[in-house]
Every structure is written in C-alpha cells, then in structure tokens.
Amino acid sequence: MNASVAVQVLPMYPEKQKVLAVVDAVIAYIKSTGINYEVSAFETTMEGDYDQLMAILKEIPIVTAKAGGTSQMVCAKINYFPEDTGLTIADKVTKFKH
C-alpha cells in the first residue's frame, strides 16, 4: 500500500432517493474493485496502490452518470507514501470504533 484516497460524492438533488442511488452506485463500484475501503457518513476511504486508486477515482464521475446522475461534485483527498510508509485505515480508526 502506498496511498490512501478519501472520496466524497455530492449529488445535487432534492430527492433523497436519487441522492442515495448515485452514492450507492459509487460504493458498489468501489467494492467491485477489490481494494480495501471503509464507508463513513461523509466519504469513503480507499487504500492500496496509487495508480490503481487513481484509476478508480477517474472512473467515479462516469459511474455517477451511469447511475442517472446529472449534477454532482466529486471531492477527493489523496495521501501518497513514496516508500509504503503510510498509516492504514485500521491504524487511523480502530481505536475509535465502538
């Protein structure tokens, strides 16, 4: 693992069902890639190979469009570790789980 990426999809619709459908499609896509990820209330964090994560991130707006999305923003935070020395998701959050 040499990177982690947090991605937030913000559908701009008043209908809650449409918002959920777009977000659910993105999470299903991320799950289908086989990478390690964790869903939270505001974003989904992925970890793995930098190039693979960038390919996944690049695909997310396309996934939203295929799910019927016509107006959404995709925000990302990227943490790259050139020497595979970064903290994992588990390192960062396990002690806070209840």
From TrEMBL:
One protein family per Pfam: Thiamine_BP
Cellular component (GO) terms are:
cytosol
- Which stretches make up the Thiamine-binding protein domain? 5-96
UniProt lists the family membership as follows:
Belongs to the UPF0045 family.
Its recorded name reads Thiamine-binding protein domain-containing protein
